[in-house]
Amino acid sequence: MGEQGIIGFHDVYKSFGENHVLRGINFDVLPGDVHFILGHSGAGKSVLIKQLVGLLKPDSGQIVFDGEDITAYSEKQFTNLRKRCQFVFQHSTLFDSRSVLENIAMPVRKRFGLGRQQANDAAIDALTKVNAEKYVDVLPTQLGHGLRKRIAIARAIALKPEVVLYDEPTTGLDPVNARRTDRLIRDLADRLKITSVVVSHDLISLRSIADRVTFLNGGFVAFEG
Fold it and tell me: From CA 209, how far away is CA 123, in angstroms rounded?
């Protein structure tokens, strides 16, 4: 057998009423990979990764994280798992009334129990990694979509996760910012050894930065490679 996955979906089913979204999904995500999950709208891509962090529960099957079955985790157990696995949503979900620095420093202070200056230093370090350190005092509402996406990524990596889940990271971005976001995801995966799961339908992104891809169609894995 090959390398063991840090994430495993084993015969996962999920329905909403009569809508059978996932019909027995099987694949692994290897440590350090940039792994794309592709499929048409409604194929179950976001449903799948939301189950990984406990936002949804599978109807049946098994989800494994770092060798442990998390399928029946309690909310408290998922709270601990979410510290290891950060979610970058399609919409950046920043606090518009707080500066860029505060958007990152606040969760860092809460997560690690740091003082204000230590948290600010950690936030600036994360912003530097995404080439956005000059925007520390700016409000998110003053930034374009591409920069807001980079700030959201900085907030995720400031919390030192092992895995980052990206939900449609290039949707709504112009081609220049989309490709910049691609390069950032690849660079952070390589430099910080972060496993990256990218839900997308952007074939340019796939060809540019993916190590592996799982294509969902009709509730099944239509292709993996």
Answer: 26
The order of strands in the sheet holding 19-29 is 19-29, 7-16, 60-65, 68-69
Helix, strand, coil share (%) of the chain residues, nearest 5: 40, 25, 35
* Listed residue (185, 190, 189, 140) closest to 167, CA to CA: 185
| Angle (nearest 5°) at CA 116 between 113 and 120 | 105
> How many angstroms separate the CA atoms of 177 and 144, rounded?
10
pLDDT in tens, 118-144: 999 999 999 999 999 999 999 999 998
pLDDT in tens, 93-111: 888 899 999 999 999 999 9
Quick one: tokens of 175? Answer: 């081609």
CB contact set of 85 (below 8 Å; sequence gap of 6+): 52, 53, 65, 161, 162, 163, 164, 165
Q: What is the pTM of this model?
A: 0.91
